Amino acid sequence: MRLRVFHAPSATLALSAVREALGEDAVVLSTRRVGGGVEVTAALDLAEPELIEPEPEPQVTPPELARHNLAPGLGAGFTGQSLAAALAARLSFEALPLDRPILLVGPPGAGKTLTCAKLAARAKMAGHTPIVVTADGARAGAVEQLAAFTRLLRLTLAVAALPEALAKALGAREEGQMALVDGFGCDPFDEAQAERLHRLIRAVDAVPVLVLPAGLDAEESAEIARAFHMLGARHLLPTRLDMTRRLGGVLSAACTGLALTEAGIGPQVAHGLQQLSPQWLATRLTDGLPREKTA
After folding, report:
1. In this predicted model, which residue has the larger pLDDT, 94 or 176?
2. CATH code (residue 241)
3. Structure pTM?
């Protein structure tokens, strides 16, 4: 507190001096007559005023999303309209860009090899002959697993773990021919593994598509998605949507800037993929796995 004493011929002049020196917030403590006029003692409280922060508005999660273990604050972004419309406004949905080589990337065990087989089977059933390559030469049984699928589809499988070998394997690719590359299980937070993946992408100008299993912790999924996004991934293909009940991890990963594309909905190679759309995802979030209508 700051105290000052003012002398003036009259009380009016003394109070005027107080306001001029200390401002309108000054408090007059005492006034008394003295020889030659008036003495006024005034004070100014210099303590910082207490700031009362407004209470934050509650983050409301739509009831249909409440059970999906969304990351904190994420649910509020899907309010105010129908769930399908909210998903369309908040998230991106895109088809796979098949005019360039597709490189399936993701952490170990995400379902990349099975997804590669599903994409190859769908192309084969549509009358196309895709080039299928595996870049996962280290994991035990990885080549054998994909080779078993390609034999059934009567497709040739190339093994190319190095960027140079991958470029050579895709060198015979005809214009417009689909190319599918099963990437290795990559820890995107490991500098050496991230650099290896980056070299594979650059070698053939591939489109890295993140394959990520549903059911992971929401914040963990978002961190993994952001890491692969920095390595060039722009599309998200979630797997295990047939068995996972809570999809907070999928939504959190999609909110990092990745476009939702296909989704793995079962172990069947021939019919185990689903093109994602806002309406399909809204139904999956509210009612479970959508089923095909029967006549």
Report:
1. 94
2. 3.40.50.300
3. 0.77
